[in-house]
Amino acid sequence: MRFLGFDNGTNHMIGVPRGDQIHELCSIDEFYDDPSRWQTTTPRTPGIDLVDVRQIPPVPKTARVLCLGLNYASHIAETGRERPGAPNIFARWYASLSCDGDEVPVPPGDTRFDWECELAVIIGAPLRQVGAADAMDGVLGYTCFNDISARGYQRRTPQWALGKNADRSAPIGPHVVSADEFGDPYGRQISTRVNGVTRQNGSTDMMLFTIAETIEFITACTSLAPGDVIATGTPSGVGDKMDPPTYLTAGDLVEVEIDGIGVLQSKIVDTPTTGVH
Question: Which residues of the chain carry a pLDDT beneath 70?
Answer without folding.
Answer: 273-277
